Amino acid sequence: MWHSLQADFPQQLPLTDFERGPLRPQPGEPVALFHWGAGRIQAVNSAEQQLPAWLEPTFYNPEKHARLVVMGRWKERLLLIRVATPAEAKKEDWPGLRSWLLQASAEEFDLLATAAGLASWDEQHRYCGRCATPTRPRNDEFSRECPRCHLRHYPRVAPCIITLVWREDALLLARSPRFAPGVYSTLAGFIETGESAEQALHREVKEEVGVQVGNLRYLGSQAWPFPHSLMLGYWAEYQGGDIQLEEEEIEDAQWFPLDQLPELPPKKAISRYLIDSFLTWHSGR
Ligand SMILES: [Zn+2]
Questions:
Q1: Could you tell me the distance, in angstroms and rounded to a whole number, from the CA of residue 155 to the centre of ligand 1?
Q2: How many angstroms separate the alpha carbon of residue 122 from the centre of ligand 1?
Q3: pLDDT level of residue 189 (50, 70, 90 thresholds)
Q4: C-beta neighbour count of 37 within 10 angstroms
Q5: What is the CATH number of the domain that holds 201?
Q6: How far does residue 125's CA lie from ligand 1's centre (Å)?
Q7: How much distance in Å is there from the Cα of 119 to the middle of ligand 1?
Q8: Residue 135 Cα, ligand 1 centroid: separation in angstroms?
Q9: Ligand 1: distance of its center to the CA of 229 in Å?
Q10: In whole angstroms, what is the distance from residue 205 CA to residue 211 CA?
């Protein structure tokens, strides 16, 4: 038994109440608007207690809402995404996506990640990448189609590996200059085209910290909308080599004894899940 799943970890639970897909609203139907702009989401002070603070309940009005992306149905409302200008999104009541995610329930995390992915897709695929004609959204799937050459443009998902490198008495954790002061985390990197997840894991670990690993164990995945990653989480056992930093990406990396870990990433992140589940498994052996 390698680990037991933690019920509070986002996206380990199948959703029961979110129907994903570009559905068609009817005039006057109850909907909820999600206001997105430049990585921020507006707080809308919902008067309805059942809805999170970032969803504005209203009724569908084709004159105002026809161009908005419909992301699916939740709590008997269609959820619509409005993409605001960066200037509007700079105002005070627009917290960053990260701060909303870190306080979200597992189900809300999924909605936020989906909305962020669809908003950036809608913003970035207005013209065909092959012939530069303006694209149009399809009604039957999340894609924007070119009316001239029929190329379809889908929301992007960028697979990444994220891995906890361990040995019997210590964890190899690293920090990037982008992290909050004092925080160390697991290693991560994008999978290149043509590469398997496992090949990417060996390559990234070697590039970033210079060590060899083996005995890979897949633990689970998490959508991470910065901007549209899918993190595939592994444990990897240390096999040899001394730490050598890739200095452009990694500011520091160290072996931390299991009982002397540094400040770790927040509980909602898969990096933390990889660490916590390892400690649980290790202490139960
Ligand atoms: Zn085209």
A1: 16
A2: 16
A3: very high
A4: 20
A5: 3.90.79.10
A6: 11
A7: 21
A8: 8
A9: 26
A10: 7
**Which of 211, 208, 197 is closest to 160 using CA atoms?**
197
CA of 148 to the centre of ligand 1 (A): 5
**Domain containing residue 63: CATH number:** 3.90.79
Q: Report CA(188)–ligand 1 centroid distance (Å).
A: 35
Query: For residue 188, is it within any domain?
Result: yes
Cα 151 to ligand 1 centre (Å): 6
Contact criterion met (CB below 8 Å) for 156 and 228: yes
Question: Rounded to the nearest whole angstrom, what is the distance from the C-alpha of residue 134 to the centroid of ligand 1?
Answer: 8
Domain range spanning residue 254? 158-283
Burial, 279: exposed, middle or buried (Cβ in 10 Å; 0-12, 13-18, 19+)? Answer: middle
CA distance 104 to 98: 10
Of 21-25, 184-188, 208-212, the one with minimum mean pLDDT is 21-25
pLDDT tens-digit profile of 69-95? 999 999 999 999 999 988 999 888 899
CA distances to 163, 199, 220 from 285, in Å: 21, 29, 21
Q: 4 CA distance to ligand 1 centroid (A)?
A: 48
* Better-predicted residue by pLDDT, 22 or 163: 163
Q: Which of 100, 124, 148 corresponds to the end of one domain?
A: 124
Mean pLDDT value across the chain = 91
Domain co-membership, 33 together with 120: yes
User: Which residues have a Cβ under 8 Å from the Cβ of 154 and sit 6 or more positions away?
Assistant: 121, 142, 143
CA of 120 from ligand 1 middle (Å) equals 20
